[in-house]
Amino acid sequence: MRNSFRIFDTHAHIGEALHSGRISTAEVLLRRMDEYGIERSVIIPFPVVENYRRQHDLIGEALKMHPGRFVGTACMSPFLPQAEFQDEVLRCREQFGFQAIKLQPQYQGLNPLSTASDRFFETALEHEKIVICHTGSGLPFSAPSLYMAPARKFPDLRIVLGHSGGGIFVQEAIVAALFCPNIFIELSTLMPHHVLEVMKHLPSSRLMIGSDLPENLDTEIGKILTLDVLELDKRNILYETAAGIFHE
């Protein structure tokens, strides 16, 4: 808890990233969570890794060692053979209790408008996974508006737009969520005035915070705490929206 507000970080990473060389452990993340008063975090593998199963095992071990603190997310190439992809999603659910799957179109060039993407979203829906999609950098397939297509095709599938389009495409994220009630907005990387613009169009019950990286925590939490908005809206963004999507 921070300033009497409960906090649920919906965008964090652990593991070993080949593209950046970053290594992050659950123990280091947990220390930062405690430092900033974060109750729970959604933890996601980095998008470019040597062995995706090893990264999922690291997250699974973190869930086992620290019950109630983490929500597990799978991330792997959507172009794996279908049986291999489905088997891993099933393994992550049954062995570890993962609740989400991440699509990172900056590194995984899957077109959400193509029929080839159907198996990704169908698998997520079949295994009751929330889909977290990176949006913003990495065009063309990271444009928030593209996720309107799977959201409308699979109305029971909940989709979180990570970074809300990264600032420059924030209006696209707003429009996508306006027309698709199963789309939620994660606000990391946005400036405070962007957050206020989002809130003009969408209820706070559709919005949530994320940090992406530990060094962003102070900024991401602080920008919500200092907004001139209702306390209820801050509570929704900082905790309640995520708590309603990601169960204990």
Count of domain modules: 1
Number-wise, the strands total 10
Mean pLDDT figure: 97
* Spatial gap, N to C terminus: 17 Å
| CATH architecture descriptor name | Alpha-Beta Barrel
Broad shape: globular
Query: How many helix segments?
Result: 9
- What is the helix/strand order? EEEHEHEHEHEHEHEHEHH
Structural description of this entry:
It is a single chain. The protein has 248 residues and is α/β, with parallel strands linked by helices. Helices cover 40% and strands 16% of the residues. The protein has nine helices and ten strands. The protein has helices at residues 26-36, 52-65, 82-96, 118-126, 148-153, 170-179, 192-201, 217-225, 231-245, and strands spanning 8-13, 15-16, 23-24, 40-44, 70-74, 100-103, 130-134, 159-162, 183-186, 207-208. Helix 2 (52-65) packs parallel to helix 3 (82-96).
